[in-house]
Fold Glycosyltransferase.
Amino acid sequence: MATTFDRLILDPRRTDDTRARPHTRRAPENEAAQSPSLMLLVLLAAAGILVYAVFLLNPGNRGDWLPYALVMAAESILILHGLLAMWTVLSSGWNPRGFAFHHAQERLYDLAEILREGAEDEPWRWQMYLEDRPLAVDVFITTYGEDLGTIRRTVSAAVRMQGKHATWVLDDGRSDDVRDLAAELGARYVRRLSSGGAKAGNINHALSLTHGDFFVVLDADFVPKPEFLHETVPFFAGSDVAFVQTPQTYGNFDTVISRGAGYMQAVFYRYVQPGRNRFNAAFCVGTNVIYRRAAVDSIGGIYTDSKSEDVWTSLMMHEQGWRTVYIPTTLAVGDTPETVEAYTKQQLRWATGGFEIMLTHNPLSPKRNLTMDQRIAYFVTATHYLTGIAPLLLLLVPPLEIYFDLSPMNLTLTPAMWAMYYAGFYVMQILLAFYTLGSFRWEVLLLASVSFPIYVRALVNAVLRREQAWHVTGRKGAYRSPFAFMLPQVLVFQFLLVTTLVALWKTHTSGVFTLALAWNATNTVILGGFIVTAWREGRRARAEARTQRRADMVAARRAATQVAEAAPLELEPAAAPAAVPSTPRSRRAPAVPPAAPAATEPRTDFPPR
């Protein structure tokens, strides 16, 4: 089997290929974005959005002012973001790998030096060069209470990445076990005295201790692939490149929450971020990224005044004129939130950071040193989570008609006409999602419809400047019921259920089936699905907790038994005093009994059932 060094020698050089210009060749991961079928679907979806917008704005179709205002507010947000998303996706086929990248990658290592040092089978020792200058690269792994198994996987992979580098474990959890683990795996360990600035402060503290030309940031639950540096460092042949971002790819799709959260981000990483490359507006997502240290120093370090330090840092760099690169190549695999608690805390942190940009650093302001494309791209980022609040406004529309006979649209419209315009928008969006994700992902629809309390709270936090606590996605802790984080959804579900029953009663008495009943019943089913998901999660977590308690009890009893059996052997020499050697064995005083009875007493430190 060919080794990494063999492939390095045998693979043809891209810049020596005379059959095509390297800057026009498609990278494999960009082929899906350049699919003619995708482009056709995007254009049809954009046309459907425009037709639906014209339908809503037609004064002749307007109904009662209150539900109409709710529909217009919600749909305006969704339509605007839908059109801007289509605009970005249409640009996603652009390939950032040009001649400079391929030229730098082919000369990244000195083959003669590798042979002299006998490092053919140890690629992590290969010195990397750019323009014949040796590079110093630091790899920062940020930790904050993740379990040791997770950290071990990431650190083990990081120290063995191809290309010479130093791996640092930045432990804000201040764990001696993590310190020992880093020493065992050959990584350096940093522990600071305070947690100021959360993750951003942790990275800035490490920067004060290191001097590498570039540094990688990895969350503790993202395991890098060996080729991470090989695929990213050559982009820095361009002296204006500030960072290279790779996607967040997930390997844990075991629960409804993890699948929904993972699929929700898949379109962003496959099609939206690549499209931002064309506008020099691709932003950092906090992990799986490599920075040029000089670029970070030029803005005073990683931004610390927001828990969405990644987006803010990207914005500061773009305002300074730096260029950023995103490649949709999976170079690290991590964990997406698996529980309602983890998902809620993650989305709350991300949304609060986005709303902070919208309220305090409006990208559309003439004060910002951004291109028009960058202004639009960051405006979309800052207002994106408003699309998560829109479902709340739409949830209120059917009850207004059921209880007060207030309709958002002119009742003279036939259901068929309404369905035609409505399908032009929503059905095309579903078809587009079906194409890009490979199938219909109902988990995405579920989370998108029920996350509005998170985003409302995030908006309130941003308006009132409330401090948002830092939470790590992969952190393990004591079990907490998912219903502790979804009280608003439970209350809304109860309200919709009652409203559906009222609508059914009115339909039974009048004999007229209304669109409001179908709409409200659909919302009820979606909220109900989320309630069932949370109930199953809670049941599974309680079962796992009971199993763990039993295992702990068995382990404790086994340890106590071993101590009890070993104790007599330790005390036996003192049982026969030297002063009475002639005393018959049967008449000797009994030896001091071991402390076995105490070991069999019931423990009181177990967690309650």
The radius of gyration is 30 Å.
